[in-house]
Write the structure tokens for this entry.
Amino acid sequence: MKVVRLRFYEELNDFLPTARKKEPFLHQFTGNPSVKDLIESLGVPHAEVDMILVNGSSVDFSYKPTDEDQISVYPVFESLDISEVTHLRRRPLRRLKFICDVHLGKMARNLRLLGFDTFFDRNIDDNEIINMSISEKRIILTRDRQLLKNNRITHGYWIRSSDPREQIREAVARFDLRNNLKPFTRCMDCNGLIRTVSKEDIIELLPPRTRQYYEEFFKCNVCGKIYWEGSHYENMKKQIQKLPD
């Protein structure tokens, strides 16, 4: 039997029982597991971990803990520059692209509203999500903790809230998105880019009252959906202004 002292930092505590949150605690184990396996056995997905210090020195996921090790575990620093330490992955993705699991359809629409490339398909399975995340360098957003424990995942985040309004606020704060917003540049339905289109080109597709009261229009390059700055536009602008800095 071996005993180590562990301390998890910041949002990694969301995965721990109350008695272990934000406090050092002792953990007993047998065998010769890697520090990655040890961390995940406590409920913390490796995809949310960016740095591990053992007795004050940084280690990678393959390190095998020994008796009486002091282990500190830190989350992915997407919004901070900590260049003097050893990360467990390549530098954080700065051209942020996301893929949402089947539970986060409203969140995908909200991220697209803010201008972020966000893939969502309610018929996609976990393996397809992981494959697309790897091939297209997309950050997985999920409500499924177990998904993030898959060994192939390098960038992922467990969305804590079940409220769509809180979910988008959570993502903006977590990934430091406030200064990268490009609202109303992506189609909320299909993720395609939208462009300005002349009224004359689409006038036959417009409802009568829209033809009468609006002059500026936008069209999705992929699905062809048409947008204009109606009352919904003003409501969405107000919601964007409420996002955290």
Remarks:
- The CA atoms of residues 226 and 240 lie 21 Å apart.
- The chain has three domains: 2-75, 98-180, 194-241.
- The two ends are 47 Å apart (CA to CA).
